[in-house]
Amino acid sequence: MQEEILTTESEECDLTDAFLRGALLLQEKWVMMIVHGLLDRPMGFSELMRKGNVNTTTLTQRLNLLEHAGLLTKTIHSTMPPRTSYELTESGQALRPILEAITKWSSVHLAPLADPGVCPGAEASSPCESSGC
Fold first, then answer.
1. Overall domain count for the chain
2. Which InterPro entries is this protein grouped with (predicted)?
3. Secondary structure in 3-state letters for 82-117
4. What span, in angstroms and rounded, lies between the C-alpha atoms of 18 and 26?
5. Does residue 34 lie within any of the structural domains?
6. Whole-angstrom Cα distance, residue 61 to residue 67?
7. Which one of 2, 54, 79, 86 is separated from 37 by 20 to 30 angstroms, measured CA to CA?
8. CA 57 vs CA 53, 96, 119: distances in Å
């Protein structure tokens, strides 16, 4: 009987570990915005930077983190000047229903932004692109 309890606790630990790994990755600032931006098509570095109004260093760190985690691939195009694009992998695309659920939940349970022209987390004077945050 004690063996059953240990198995159950072990399974809970595995579940908690899996949740924590995902939560720690997704809680990093800009990670969900980057993934959301790449859901429908690949984007270049500059386009991602403008879309979220994120600085170069932070964007580079988050893109490297997502690439290392297997959520996106980086392609360096042989053009002049050289161009880099980022695209979600199957693992990255698997986050689509989660991000859609967050969007649905937010629209039902949270008040609209006071100033929809300003991205949350961005500098107060930095407007979003016309496509939104």
1. 1
2. ArsR-like_HTH, HTH_HxlR, WH-like_DNA-bd_sf, WH_DNA-bd_sf
3. CEEEEEECHHHHCCHHHHHHHHHHHHHHCCCCCCCC
4. 12
5. yes
6. 10
7. 79
8. 12, 26, 19
Tokens of 120: 């949350």
Distance of CA 41 to the CA centre of its chain: 14
Contact 58, 29 (CB under 8 A): yes
16-51 pLDDT tens trace: 888 899 999 999 999 999 999 999 999 999 999 988
Q: What is the pLDDT of residues 60-111, one digit of tens each?
A: 999 999 999 999 999 999 989 889 999 999 999 999 999 999 999 999 999 8
User: CA 36 to CA 95: how far, in whole Å?
Assistant: 9
The dihedral through the CA atoms of 9, 12, 14, 17 has a sign that is: negative
Q: Are 75 and 67 in contact (CB under 8 A)?
A: no
- pTM for the model stands at 0.74
- Domain coverage including residue 97: 29-106
Q: What is the spatial distance between Cα 124 and Cα 65, in angstroms, rounded to a whole number?
A: 27
Closest CA to 87 of 72, 105, 99: 72
